[in-house]
Amino acid sequence: MVENAYPLVVAVGPTASGKTALALKLAEQFEGEIVSCDAVAVYRGLDVGSAKATAAERARVRHHAIDILDADEASTAGDYARAARAALAEIKARGRLPIVTGGTGLYLRALLEGLAPAPPRDEELRERLRERAARRGSESLHRLLRRVDPAAAAAIHPNDVPKMIRSVEVTLAARRPQSEQWQAGRDRLQGFRALQMGLNPPRVALYERINERAARMFDEGLLEETAAARERYGDACRALGSLGYTQAAAMLRGEMTRAEAIAAAQQGHRNYAKRQMTWFRRDKQIEWLAGFGDDADVQARAAERVKRHLVG
């Protein structure tokens, strides 16, 4: 334990595991504020597809690191870490409990452990990788990343072409997997001691929730959000490469029926949940909670851990 370090709570888990519900409960119980750790929630206007905290939820508890970028702006793990660390400092200054919650493992690692210095950009290599993705599809790029750095591939969604390109670029330029580079020369978060909790719901029940939520998004405004983003930024908008938006855009272009788009989104979210759990299970600092974050029993068990953490 770090002497005089300020308490910090982290709640992670796969998509649809109830992280938001748990974070809200803990924030209200322990006078906290929530720092989102989600690669899509940083974008304005992408609310439904990111399962972003609603206006009502944000009225209950103050949220940070959401709606900080336009959908055509680049967002890196380093950018997120700087924004989230600034939010932690503000919350600490107010004497509130910071609660970081989300499912983007790389962003959480950047926040808590920092990032290693990266090699310079190689525009020629980037262009070759972009052409590969355009010619063979993004999955081809993900297969390449799995060959050169399986750990990084597990953390990056196969539709996220910019992140895959950067990861391959960094690995090839340094002749060392990016995931290994993450371990060296990091600027770790200082002044905080973190309690990390992870939600681990039953897989069958989780997949049922994922399927229900992915289908519900198409009824609750996902298509309208996608159409608005396409109109404003064009199909090349990087945020539209995210889960749900990719399938909605394909439907709007007439490349998929509604049923096909929903099925593809459901499958994509289930696959993403598997990758999230693979990532988080590597972190031995995480204390696991069996169940969903909106279960009263899980919330009670989490609250007990937070109480112990607060007294040091």
How would you describe the overall organization of this protein?
The structure is a single chain. By secondary structure, the protein is α/β, with parallel strands linked by helices. The chain has 2 domains: 6-115 and 186-310, P-loop containing nucleotide triphosphate hydrolases (Rossmann fold); 123-181, Histone, subunit A, CATH 1.10.20.140. Helix content is 54%, strand content 11%. The chain contains 14 helices and 6 strands. The protein has a 6-stranded parallel sheet, with helices on both faces. α2 (55-60) links the parallel β2 (32-37) and β3 (63-64). The radius of gyration is 19 Å and the shape is globular. The protein starts with 5 loop residues before the first strand and ends with a helix. The model has no long low-confidence stretch (mean pLDDT 92).
Helix content: 40-55%
Q: On the 0-100 scale, what is the average pLDDT?
A: 92
Low-confidence stretches: none
Assembly state here? single chain
Q: Beta-strand level of the residues, as a percent range?
A: 5-15%
The CATH homologous superfamily of the largest domain corresponds to P-loop containing nucleotide triphosphate hydrolases
CATH structural class of the largest domain: Alpha Beta
In total, the number of domains comes to 2
Terminal CA distance: 8 Å
Count all strands and give the number.
6
Helix-strand string: EHEHEHEHHHHHHEHHHHEH
Within the CATH hierarchy, at the fold level, what is the topology of the largest domain? Rossmann fold
